[in-house]
Amino acid sequence: MRKKQARIPLYIIASLLFGLKTYIVYRFMFNIELDNRMQELILFINPFVSAFLIFAVSVWFNKPSRQMKYLRYTAFIFSFIVFANLVFYRQFTDFITLPQLFMGSNMTDLGSSILTLIKPYDILLFTDAAIIWYLSKKKESTLSVQYLKRGKAFALSMSLLLLAGNFFLAEMERPQLFTRAFDREYLVKNIGLFNYHVYDLVIHSKTESQRVFADGNEIPEIKDYIEENVKVTEKSDMFGVAEGKNVIFINAESVQGFVVGKEVNGQEITPFLNKLVEDEDTYYFDNFFEQTGQGKTSDSEFLVENSLYPLSRGAVFFTHGGNEYHALPEILKEEDYFSAVLHANNKSFWNRDGMYRSLNLDHFYSDEAYEITDENSVGWGLKDKPYFEQSIKYLQAMEQPFYTKFITLTNHFPFELDEEDKSIEPYDSNSNTLNNYFPTVRYADEAMEEFFDHLKQAGLYEDSIIIIMGDHIGISANHNRAMSMFLDKEEITPYDQVQLLKVPLFIHIPGHGKGETISTVSGQIDLKPTILSLLGIEHKNDIYFGNDLFAKNRKGYIALRNGDFVSDDYLSTAGMCYDVHTGELADVEEEATSEEEATTGTSSPCDEIAEKVELELSYSDNIIYGDLFRFVDFAEEKQVEK
Ligand code: GP9
Ligand code: MN
């Protein structure tokens, strides 16, 4: 009889070897940014968790030879996945996604240069697979185990436990990782390459199936709705005032409306923006709402470029970055505009690179276009002042007219700022977030002022219009106590919470002289039609949900992504209908007029708009989920129109 010895099953050995290899690749071959110890820890753990998940499956094969075969082949296949991602990464600084693999032109680009991307030492990536292969052949008898129920249960529960532990840590490090932070680097960093691929596969099949079943027959209904309920019937007086001018759009990170005109510790928070409010060349919209969902900055970009709503779950930039759109860059290209986004962050963040291709953007100046050092960075990266300064050379070299978007970064949660950049002192409350918000807003304000000066010096100012928009709120409801103290209110009610979604919007037209403050209810959905109208571009058959901000007969309400809305008269949130001017609950109409109301006995003055809001949001969702614009030939329709 053979001596009974303690045997380590091959799947455990394989998990350790493969886990270690993957960790080395993550750490030293991909350029993954690690900001703190926790991230280091997660990055170290997740390769082993994934490896265990993969190899522990072998316990379900009863025959030792099958077990061994499974381990051999999976070790090679998964090593190949790591290798393929590495080669792809060397070219694109990004991880492979399924849409890219199947239909992107990325892969064809890669095709020609693939040999230059493979290094001789890449063969080492298969070391573990080779060892596993060897052991599985030579040591089958010692390393294979006849698993009893207990062994199987152990492997399965261990797999699930490790996975749950990994996800828990990841969620702690990056809350709402799966729904909010759709950056591929974040996903890989937190849950590993393989779980990321599974996630990508799930998202991809879900969106693909919705796309597959769509046939575009809903388009006429949507168009009718828009004709009747959305589009303004008359051109505004501002139509064409900026014809042929450059458009410089500043997406001001987390700048919220409540700071404009306010002071902290006796100091103005936004002296430059305050000056703009009074400026005769500037229109200031003080009743302008952000309408973003979980996609935050990217959602605000989506709203501006398309005048469609972002999605209620996830970031549309990520989930539907490959759709057909009919966005500003595409329309402006027909008018010989050159379009670019300048943003000093990783190009795959929010899948910007993917979405920008779909929007037909001509060029994206991402972090690679900037000189970023420890000295000129804080928090999320390059500080706004050097960012604007370094951007000017690109603007100067750009073909005119251009449509450019600048996205600032310094005023991003958690609002870090170097001492030397602090012009005002933090606030003093129980919320450090709110306290530190003011100095970073002030920094952004100064950076924008400097940018205006750069534009003047570069001779670009006169021929441009400059739009500044806050992308979304910076201070969430978690800081309501501190916020109510700052606003000198007893509490922040649901009504106030919606009012806090206001972000500033400035439209600055050098030499115009007729600027004023406009207080009609408006939102990010309105920018596309507004910009087109200012530039004197008409596109009667375009499909969108906003209105020209300067038009007289606007639709009169702004839908928020969660179905809440603000109208000229009412504000609807959390199932309540308020008088928008007083903040008091609006009177419930006693007399029931419809069947449904007859059963509940009441109807609210908000009902009529609420219905429209719901319909509008669902039309917009259907356009995105079904990728319906692939059934519309906007160019042809424009021809017919002429
Ligand atoms: C990142 C920047 C911030 O590039 O746009 O994104 P956010 O977290 O505000 O959506
Ligand atoms: Mn943002």
Overall CATH architecture of the largest domain: 3-Layer(aba) Sandwich
Q: Give the CATH class of the largest domain.
A: Alpha Beta
**What small molecules accompany the polymer chains?**
(2R)-2,3-dihydroxypropyl phosphate, manganese (II) ion
Residue share in helices? 40-55%
How many β-strands, per DSSP?
18
Cα-to-Cα separation, first versus last residue: 93 Å
Question: Spans with pLDDT under 50 lasting ≥5 residues?
Answer: none
Task: Let me know the average pLDDT.
Answer: 90
CATH topology of the largest domain: Alkaline Phosphatase, subunit A
- For the CA atoms, what is the radius of gyration? 28 Å
Oligomer: single chain
What tags apply to this protein structure?
metal ion binding; 642 residues; globular; four-stranded antiparallel beta sheet; alpha/beta; 10% strand; cell membrane; membrane; binds (2R)-2,3-dihydroxypropyl phosphate; single chain; Alkaline Phosphatase, subunit A; binds manganese (II) ion; eight-stranded mixed beta sheet
Question: Topology, pairings included?
Answer:
Layout lengths: L9 H20 L7 H20 L7 H29 L5 H5 L3 H12 L9 H12 L1 H4 L5 H25 L10 H29 L6 H11 L16 E7 L10 E2 L2 E2 L2 H8 L3 E4 L2 E2 L6 H11 L9 H4 L8 H7 L3 E5 L9 H7 L4 E3 L11 E2 L2 E2 L1 H14 L4 E6 L24 H26 L6 E7 L9 H8 L6 H6 L5 E4 L8 E2 L3 E2 L3 H8 L22 E3 L5 E3 L2 E4 L2 E4 L15 H6 L6 H19 L8 H8 L1
Parallel strand pairs: 1-10, 1-11, 4-13, 5-14, 6-7, 6-10
Antiparallel strand pairs: 2-3, 4-12, 8-9, 11-12, 15-16, 16-17, 17-18
Helix pairs in contact: 1-2, 1-3, 1-6, 2-8, 2-9, 3-5, 3-6, 16-17
The structure holds (2R)-2,3-dihydroxypropyl phosphate (GP9) and manganese (II) ion.
